[in-house]
Amino acid sequence: MADDSGLSRLQQRLAAIPQDVKEAVQPALEKQAEAMARTMKTLVPRETGALADSIAVTPGGESTPAYSQPGGSMVVPANAAAITVGNTDVRYGHLVEYGTAKAHAHPFFWPSVRLHGGQAKQAIKRAVGRAVRKNWGKGS
């Protein structure tokens, strides 16, 4: 029961965040996702360039490319940005990242996430802080 009340309190607090604050954070999310994607494109092995070209950033409210990893096409939730690899023509990003029995792994996705993760968290926290200060007392 304690978990349910804690969850409901969290949901109430999240629902109380003014829309202005939520909207102000989206550019920071997208900017950080773009930085990660650029690093991924730099690290990915290049034979034809198709894998690097398939790396995409999808902002909240939009659909990711069909056949992208992880999970194929999906609608990205609000206040989020998704970085995907792959499309209808490129379906082998996970094989490059993790390797196969016949090919060595060439990680490019997770090293980029680890490299940018801390900086992204700080940038998003700063954006939230600025938006809250700017919108303090305005109400929903």
Question: Which secondary structure elements does this structure contain, and how are they paired or packed?
Answer:
Blueprint: H1 2-15, H2 19-43, H3 50-53, E1 56-59, E2 81-84, H4 93-98, H5 109-135
Antiparallel strand pairs: 1-2
What do these coordinates show?
The protein has helices at residues 2-15, 19-43, 50-53, 93-98, 109-135; strands at residues 56-59, 81-84. The chain has 140 residues and is mainly α. It has one domain (20-135). It has a two-stranded antiparallel ribbon with strand order 1-2. The mean pLDDT is 88.
Short description:
This is Phage protein. With 140 residues, the chain is mainly alpha-helical.
Sum up the overall morphology in one term. Answer: elongated
Contiguous low-pLDDT stretches (5 residues minimum) are none
- Kindly provide the radius of gyration, computed on alpha-carbon positions and rounded to a whole number of angstroms: 18 Å
SS-derived structural category:
mainly alpha
Proportion of residues in helical segments: 40-55%
Spatial strand sequence of the major β-sheet: 1-2
User: How much of the residues is beta strand, in percent?
Assistant: 5-15%
**Average pLDDT, all residues:** 88
How many beta-strand elements?
2
Protein name: Phage protein
Features:
mainly alpha; 140 residues; two-stranded antiparallel ribbon
